[in-house]
Amino acid sequence: MSGSSKNPFEGHPDLATWLGLSVGFLVLLAWSARGLGLGVQAWLVLALAATSVAGLCTRIIAWEADPEAHEADAPPHARGDAP
User: Fold this and answer.
1) Are 18 and 55 spatial neighbours (Cβ–Cβ below 8 Å)?
2) Rounded Cα distance, 34 and 79, in Å
3) CA 32, 36, 39, 41 torsion-angle sign
4) Torsions phi, psi of 61, nearest 5?
5) Cβ distance 9 to 53 under 8 Å?
6) The pLDDT of residue 68
7) What's the start-to-end Cα distance of the chain, in Å?
8) Cα separations (Å) of 33 from 37, 44, 51, 57?
9) pLDDT at 72
């Protein structure tokens, strides 16, 4: 690095949103499932599920924030291409 302290998420706001939601979801998961006696595999599966849901939420937020930028990702009936 050449001494620049540039924000790594500056050009990727969706990644920053996903990271923030994932951390929040994982904190809530750890707090709510503590004391249940879950095994390591169960914790990993729940963490993967929470992170995946955070990613889906990020995608929905991005669609709502800028519908034209994500129009190609929308289903045909949402774009008006349906017969």
Assistant:
1) yes
2) 44
3) negative
4) -60, -40
5) no
6) 63
7) 54
8) 8, 13, 16, 21
9) 59
